[in-house]
Amino acid sequence: MRKTRQRQVILEELGKVNTHPTAAELCTMVRRRMPHISLGTVYRNLDILSRSGAIARIDVGGEEMRFDAAVSRHYHLRCLRCGSVEDVDLPVMGSTLEEAAAKLCQAQVCGHNLEFVGYCRNCCAREVGF
Amino acid sequence: MRKTRQRQVILEELGKVNTHPTAAELCTMVRRRMPHISLGTVYRNLDILSRSGAIARIDVGGEEMRFDAAVSRHYHLRCLRCGSVEDVDLPVMGSTLEEAAAKLCQAQVCGHNLEFVGYCRNCCAREVGF
DNA sequence: TATCAATTTAGTAATCTTTACTATTTAATA
DNA sequence: TATTAAATAGTAAAGATTACTAAATTGATA
């Protein structure tokens, strides 16, 4: 993997935030420094970087793919109103759970994703009735 | 909500399988009985039925939406090779977990989705090295 | 440093899933 | 049966992602 300026800026910008941006959001961020970067380049690099394990790809509930510079395992909360995804720093469940699932399905289990759905702090403050 | 033949056949066909078909897959199934049904009709009905709670919409990991006639809460295993989604009949975790997440995020948590990723039984049998 | 091959990029087009739109048809009800 | 609101088929549009290609860039080598 070559070290290109585009790839480096993408990594830097992703490292600055903890909002799990989508490819399009990240492209907007990167374009503040590199106005001519192509959305396709952002997608391709996010793909390459996540395949190599340098970043994490978060593919939860029915929306665009999101990306995270933090590769450590953790859980997420997805807001049903604004669509934001934030970290939930609960202890990650051990292999016992995955082994139980593997046994039940007679399958090979590599990992698990746990996503909480609800309404984020901001949206709760903005709207009553959640 | 009216009782149309299209809606009924969609429900019946979805009830026959436990494979969590996508809208396109379900459309193919329904077309064996109603060759002229429109894909848009399938989508619209799946949306209406899932909003009313008659069926479940499963939106896990970065692929098409899937649908399930079984509305009871349960977990899923997604195969990284063939993309299939099957049920994992582990006990669903109680509200303690959701309350902990809500407290951590100062948010309102309505539920959670747990998805195991790995390789399904069939793919394990077909390919070595999983 | 100059050269060179392989990778990467920008820009565009294509693909795929899903939603929107519209004229026509149909279900429910009086 | 007549009426009216909802649903349908078919098509178009939207949005996310991938594919393609000529031109540019990287990293290695002479």
Structure description:
The structure is a homodimer of 130-residue chains. With 130 residues, chain A is α+β, with helices and mostly antiparallel strands. Chain A has two domains: 1-71, Arc Repressor Mutant, subunit A (Orthogonal Bundle); 73-130, Ferric-uptake regulator, C-terminal dimerisarion domain (Dna Ligase, domain 1, 2-Layer Sandwich), CATH 3.30.1490.190. In chain A, 40% of the residues lie in helices and 21% in strands. Chain A has five helices and five strands, in the order αααββββαβα. Chain A has helices spanning 5-16, 23-31, 39-52, 95-105, 121-126, and strands at 56-58, 66-68, 75-79, 85-88, 108-119. The first copy, chain A, has a three-stranded mixed β-sheet. The first copy, chain A, has a two-stranded antiparallel sheet with strand order 1-2. The first copy, chain A, starts with a helix and ends with a helix. β5 of chain A pairs antiparallel with β5 (108-119) of chain B. The structure holds a DNA duplex (30 and 30 nucleotides).
Question: What can be said about this structure in brief?
Answer:
Two copies of one chain form a homodimer. By secondary structure, chain A is an alpha+beta fold.
